[in-house]
UniProtKB/TrEMBL annotation, chain A:
Its main location: nucleus. It comes from Westerdykella ornata. The lineage of its organism: Eukaryota, Fungi, Dikarya, Ascomycota, Pezizomycotina. This is DNA polymerase delta subunit 3. Keywords: DNA replication, Nucleus. It holds the Pfam family CDC27. GO terms for cellular component: delta DNA polymerase complex. The keyword Nucleus applies. It comes from the Eukaryota. Residues 316-326 have a biased composition (Acidic residues). Residues 244-257 have a biased composition (Polar residues). One of its GO terms (biological process) is nucleotide-excision repair, DNA gap filling. InterPro entries: POLD3, POLD3_sf. One of its GO terms (molecular function) is DNA-directed DNA polymerase activity. It is found in: Nucleus.
Automatic annotation (TrEMBL), chain B:
It catalyses: DNA(n) + a 2'-deoxyribonucleoside 5'-triphosphate = DNA(n+1) + diphosphate. Residues 194-218, 353-372 are annotated as: Disordered. This is DNA-directed DNA polymerase. The keyword Signal does not apply.
Amino acid sequence: MADKYKEYLATRVLAEGKPITYRLLSRALAVHVNTAKQMLYDFHTKQNARTPNSVHATYLITGRKRALEQTNGANGGGVEDEDTVMQSSPPYMSSMPDIEAEESEEAAAEAPVPTTTIVLVKEEELESAKAEFEEITSIQVYSLEPGPLKDMRILSVCNQEITTSYSSSDPLQWWEVYGMVHNPYIKACILPFNSTPRRTGKYVPPPTTASTKPLASKTAPKAESKAPAHPSEEKSKAALISKGNVSEDTSGRSTPQPVAKTTTTLKKSDSKPNLRKDASDIFKSFAKAKAKPKSAGASKDSTPAPANDVPMQGMSEDEGNDEDDAPEVKIDEEKLKQQRQKRKEVNEKLQQMMDMSDEEMADVEEKGSEPLRKEPEEETGSSKTIEPEPTATVTSQGGRRRGRRKVIKTKKVKDEDGYLVTREETVWESFSEDEPQPVKKPKPAPKPASTAKGKGGKMGQGSIANFFKKA
Amino acid sequence: MLRGAPFEDPAYLPSRLPSSYNPMHTFELPKGADKHYRQQFADMYFLRLAQLKEAVRQKAQDAWSDFKLGNEQARFVDRVLDVRQGELCWVIGTVYIEMGLKPNILDDIAKEHWIAAPPSRATYKSTNDAMMLEDESGRLRLTGAITNSSTNDDSYSYVTGCVLAALGTEQADGAFHVLATQWADLPRQPQRWERDDSALAMAKKPVPQRKSEKRKGESGKLAIVSGLEITGTEDDDVPLDLFIEYLTCESGGPPDQTPRTKFSRLLIAGNSLSHSSPILSREDFAAARKAGKQKHYGYDSSAYNASPSERLDDFLAQILPTVPVTLLPGASDPANVALPQQPLHPALFPKSRHYANPPASSNETREGLDSVTNPWEGDIEGWRVVGSGGQNVDDLMKYVSLGSVGALDVMEFMLRWRCIAPTAPDTLWCYPFQDDDPLIVKDCPHIYIVGNQAEFAKRVITGPAGQRVLLIAVPRFSQTRQVVVLDLESLEVEKVAFDVRG
């Protein structure tokens, strides 16, 4: 590392005029934070020896503060002043165990609690701040900047830069490089960013994403640690990176995308030929026309899958911003095309979904939801139903449900004194009620309708393939 | 650390201690369609009285069984309506306090449609409040010293919803003149490690000899913070950065860093985000309306600002590699508003959720991010810990005269009444529990943490059977810049304050 840090700090602070914290320095040069603190100090003293006041520093003081008022605990039973509580006074600290030993609740509550204070100060205020401390355990250089800071909030930019630019490596390896405390028990399940379990359950994340991600995260640190050597380049890169899309390391992103793309197009072509790709699809559907209707059902069944893929791709698209510089242009083109295509696809699919309405959807749902259907029905019993009999006592017929179930009934009985006594009893009750109307009806009901209507009804709006298949 | 080149090799930092962590899922509501809101809230009071009656009766029996006034022996009366005039007796019931300023939902609906939260009041107290005791049979108006808290010391103020035994006589005007009261007091306190050990025993695994294996000082420390109230602007960033660096042991020199490696868990007790509650407060609503937004319902993507939750996610993602986190939602967090608040959804944490178990596989994350309910109950290092985002305390404070009672008093009485949210469902929004009320304290905790209080406070209370409970009121970080540190071996409490000059 020799003098790399001087070069880096000179570029960053003197040339670019940007503040830098020890933490950012450690990330940029991949050194231990404690070393980074010393580097900052070293640079600060040497630089200021050469040209006074060329570099400004802020310091972080850790220690125990001296109490300003000695009568801290004695300010009476009212609401304690925040400031007084904060500055715990060592004389009281020493007497605290005694008070606690008395078991006097009030006293224990009033007794000041040992307080560690961590203060961030500018270099001009360092001495006055130090004077407030009873005991200082450490002082470190927190940041360097070209001139006195008007507003400390500027320093938060540095930490944001860390999260945007330097968090792509495996966080569980940070401790080795940067000197965070190591926690051997934490395990991150590095899921692909998009593969949160979905409600449909049909979606299976593309395996490539999973496999490339760890790989990418391994290669990343090297690239990252190299980058800062050329700060201008790094800067432009940082500018490219939009805040918030950070955690996902995207050097691995380019691979999964084409895969996902091909899968969607494949699915699309054999599920619902749409007019844009008419030539090949129509042929295909001709070829398939003779095939069993089952395949048509199966292909329909798969339609939701691409729909599920869509948001995922949308997400990865957004994050495409932080691609590495080199492949970016190429990917952009490809992406753009893909995006346009996808948008069309989505629109069409939406359109189709709207048009085809219930029958189509019912067909789609039919397969997967057969075992599920029982569940919602059972739930519709009144909230007091504790044990609807799982066996066939619930029958559904003509939009009404009948059966027997166990319910808790609140019984009001007049006792011998003439008072009303409320009792809760479990009784069996037969019931008959309307089917739960709004949500669940569309599923079971349209089934017969779809077979009846399926022949002629929908071809005006449906896809052309269906027409051929049914014919 | 004020040293320049040559740079020595950084000192060795010990690794983190394991966090023995065993959350309970007491406050998790059924998911999806199993969650109903059609039940009546009256059932909660019924349940509460039914579950606590026996304990209160026992307690009162011990205290008053040979209580005599003149020649008259005090007699237990089963129902409040059975009280006969002039007869010395004691009854058990739920307190209900009629308060002049208590929010009335009918008023609110009459005034405007239910869009914004009702106006928050500093207190519900007015001059003509009346205290009553009710059970399933009826209500009894209470008079006497206890009903007038202004003439009394603080420990005799009661709130709606607590279950009480009252000793006294009925006056000519039908009011019950109370001489003394009793409440359930602290329930049984489990032994430390009880749940972990019994789980091991159930699994037929050898139970470790804690005393020898876990030597003193072996348990780590728990950092507790509440009210981060991240706004996503730059205002709150630097103190938050200092806090991150504190937790990850990056800031300071080796003498500071080494003790900090002992943190084995961070507990965030509510209000991590500011102004993110799904129901706008009256002020936010007025501001939104002023801004010319006509759309009252539905999602308005133009007004949505993701930066607070991104910032919170960044914060968690930075500390999670080094320390596990238990995250409770609070009043201003994007969770449901009624207690018990359900865990913050992992979709809010695209980065930090890698450290949590996917919700489909398990709802327990022992090492990593555990997004839990508010209130929450669980075992940390064998201690039973109950944590709350602070709504229960804040609401209860509105029942008592301002300034007369501190957060710790309220917390203590919640435990003694065995109900951590007695004012729910009356003035505190709450899920209509039907078959069981988890807000009743069944096991006495060792540590009771309430977040988002104005200032730090702690107290140790003791129970009749030798229970010792450490109460901690955690201040808002956004206002006080303070973090509470709890040693999980000695149960000693410390504070850490962050300050930025200039």
